[in-house]
Amino acid sequence: MKISTKGRYGVRFMLDLAIHSQEHVVTLKAVARRQQISEKYLWQVVTPLKSAGLITATVGAKGGYMLARDPAKITLKDILEPLEGDCVLVKCTQRAGACRRSSACVAREIWQEVSRTLARTMETITLKTMIEKYKAKQAGTNLTYNI
Q1: In three state form, how does the secondary structure of 26-59 look?
Q2: What average pLDDT is seen over the chain?
């Protein structure tokens, strides 16, 4: 499985939003600058996330974006599904009739199990978890060593 640029940028956008939108809205321009992502490309990310109810938008001169839910209630799966589609490795696992061999196909059962495991794992990773990892990395980069 390969996550597209859109999916990767979507995760980065949501993490940036979670870190910077605690007290105020965040502009797309600010996220684009911090994440070094084209603002034009971020528009493609924002629309599905907004449609999925993960972010809210405020229009106007002081407008921007905020999370629509608590970071502890937004999972990696919640972020990736609107951007990438269902969490399946092989399309035939979604519909039994997708292939004439599906009723006797052992590989299909294996792909279904792997897809379910992947989905369950992505459901355990929340935006709050990502924020904690970000903060830990930031704390680690500020270390100074004296010899």
Answers
A1: ECHHHHHHHHCCCHHHHHHHHHHHHHCCCEEEEC
A2: 88
